[in-house]
Specification:
Blueprint lengths: L1 E2 L3 E4 L3 H10 L4 E5 L8 H4 L4 E2 L8 H11 L6 H21 L13 E2 L9 E2 L6 H14 L4 E5 L1 E9 L2 E9 L7 E4 L3 E3 L20 H8 L4 E2 L4 E8 L12 H4 L3 E3 L19 H13 L5 E3 L7 H5 L1 H10 L8 E10 L2 E3 L11 E3 L4 E2 L11 H20 L22 H14 L6 H17 L3 H19 L24 E2 L1 H16 L1
Parallel strand pairs: 1-10, 2-3, 2-11, 3-7, 11-18, 17-19
Antiparallel strand pairs: 4-6, 5-6, 8-9, 9-10, 12-17, 12-20, 13-16, 14-15, 15-16
Helix pairs in contact: 1-5, 1-11, 3-4, 4-11, 6-14, 12-13, 13-14, 13-15, 14-15
Length: about 525
């Protein structure tokens, strides 16, 4: 066991880095399973940060679009708070050195994305926002003496005393080891979402719901776990994770066609390709199911400019042997963003004392049932700062702490790859873009079987999150936002509220499904 006065931050993405800088000069320990800058979803974000930077725009308009996209379950107070702070964070990132795209007059170049009523997404080099913001913050963090970075370490479980979190168990990442307990005065979870629980995802390989899972296993209340956003346009080129064809391509005029050359979104929604993500995702999924091979066509809208304005997309096309100047890009739906997570208040506080959460691992009420494009990075920034300030206000000031040096002994067990693969396929098949009661019950029974046969703690963290998603989806007998039920295809006004659920409650729903199978 290690006792430390350092505030422990789990994760190394945008929220973790931003919070560490905000907490300085208080001593901080960041736990990162990868070398800093790798393996974080933030670095893979191709869109940008949504903010009302244009004189013709306003935070109120931004909040209104957020509420509409969220399909009836957005916390309006949270939306108002987050959008009101957006401009300040863009200016702060700019001051830190983030090279946002600027026009000839020095103003920010704004792009429009799905469900936004106007162009308000601030970008870096077209599709490089996440990577460039991360590089800026990493440079600042490495130059901050109060921040210690513990790389190649993986958070495994929370230590609790009643309803208070007192520490965290960590192990060596990627190599079995006996876990080490670290007691700390406060813990901030900023370790990503759960996209990797699905067989097709745009998330980094290691992001498989573990952080949400171990918080739930410690007793934390989880918010909105059934609401998973599937990105409509991941590259369909048999790569895992699936590379992303950013929504900005459609914002700049790219269209969706099928193998027959039909622009199918025109018949689906008045906004066609710029309809809310859940609608576009289901339309693409339907085309795939019908064997009509959906594709993203950039030829007329962008031509050769796609190669220079969207370097990540161009790089993927080259790797896959696709010429986007002359060929449409095959696309598929992929698990992209989890609107659900550990339930938090406006300061990022979880239901367990001593625990804060920011970024995709949290559920703040901002996203509702369907996240507005490019609000993800914004939420991470706003709540990282809010949590850091709340932690600082809660704890006595400490200006120095001894560096932490855990000694990992051999032992432990890694999740079985075959069990992980079956779990991911089960989630895609039964808890994906379209759901129904039979499939969700099948998923819950499969998850229970896998869990019983594979007791490695890392795997149990994954199955805890998977159980929460499937159980909450079974409980919500309607369709809303990213949650679509074939057996309840319409929204039910009586269910227009957020879900708050514990793992214990989810397991009771699962047990009912198991009993049905034995009757």
């Amino acid at each position: 066991m290690i006792d430390t006065q350092r505030i422990v931050i789990v994760g190394a993405g945008l929220g973790a880095l931003y919070a560490a800088l905000e907490l300085a000069p208080r001593p901080v320990l960041m736990i990162s399973p990868e070398p800093l800058g790798r393996g974080a979803s933030s670095a893979w974000a191709q869109g940008g940060v949504a903010a009302a930077m244009d004189a013709a725009d306003s935070p109120d308009d931004h909040a209104r679009d957020t509420v509409v996209a969220g399909a009836g379950t957005v916390d309006t107070d949270v939306a108002a708070m987050v959008t009101a702070h957006a401009r300040d964070h863009i200016l702060d990132l700019t001051a830190l050195g983030t090279p946002f795209d600027r026009g000839p007059d020095g103003g920010y170049v704004m792009s429009r994305e799905a469900a936004h009523s106007r162009a308000r997404v601030v970008r870096v080099q077209g599709d490089q926002a996440g990577r460039q913001i991360m590089e800026t913050l990493i440079e600042q963090v490495r130059a901050t003496p109060s921040v210690q970075i513990l790389e190649h370490a993986l958070a495994l479980a929370l230590e609790t005393d009643g309803d208070r979190v007192t520490g965290i168990w960590i192990e060596r990442a990627g190599d079995p080891s006996a876990p080490v307990l670290m007691r700390a005065p406060a813990i901030l979870l900023a370790g990503g979402g759960s996209g990797g629980l699905y067989a097709v995802t745009t998330n980094p390989p290691r992001i498989r719901g573990q952080v949400i899972g171990f918080a739930a296993r410690a007793g934390a209340v989880i918010g909105d776990p059934e609401f998973v956003q599937f990105h409509p346009t991941a590259f369909d080129i048999n790569e895992d994770p699936a590379p992303l064809a950013t929504e900005a391509l459609r914002g700049d005029g790219a269209t969706l066609i099928n193998a027959d050359g039909e622009r199918f979104m025109l018949a689906v929604h008045p906004d066609a390709e710029l309809a809310p993500r859940d609608i576009v995702a289901r339309a693409i999924f339907a085309q795939t199911q019908a064997g009509k091979r959906p594709m993203l066509d950039t030829r007329q809208a962008l031509g050769a400019e796609v190669l220079t304005r969207f370097p990540s997309v161009a790089e993927t096309c080259i790797r896959a042997g696709i010429d986007p100047v002359h060929q449409p890009i095959p696309v598929t739906t992929a698990a992209h963003y989890h609107m659900g997570g550990v339930d938090t208040d406006m300061n990022g506080r979880a239901s367990l004392e001593g625990l804060w959460v920011c970024g995709e691992a949290s559920s703040t009420g901002l996203h509702g049932a369907n996240r507005l494009a490019s609000n993800g990075l914004l939420e991470a920034l706003v709540y990282a700062r809010a949590a850091a300030r709340d932690i600082a206000a809660t704890l006595p000031a400490v200006d120095h702490a001894t560096p932490v040096a855990p000694d990992f002994a051999d032992g432990g067990a890694l999740p079985d790859p075959d069990a992980v693969a079956e779990l991911r396929q089960t989630m895609t098949d039964h808890v994906g873009v379209r759901r129904n009661a039979q499939g969700l019950k099948t998923a819950l029974r499969t998850i229970a079987r896998l869990e019983q046969a594979n007791p490695a703690v890392g795997f149990l963290n994954m199955t805890a999150t998977a159980t929460l998603i499937a159980a909450a989806a079974l409980q919500r007998q309607e369709s809303r936002g990213g949650h679509f039920r074939d057996d309840f295809p319409e929204p039910d006004p009586a269910q227009a509220s957020r879900t708050r659920i514990t793992l214990e409650q989810a397991l009771k729903i699962r047990d009912s499904a198991l009993k049905e199978a034995t009757i």
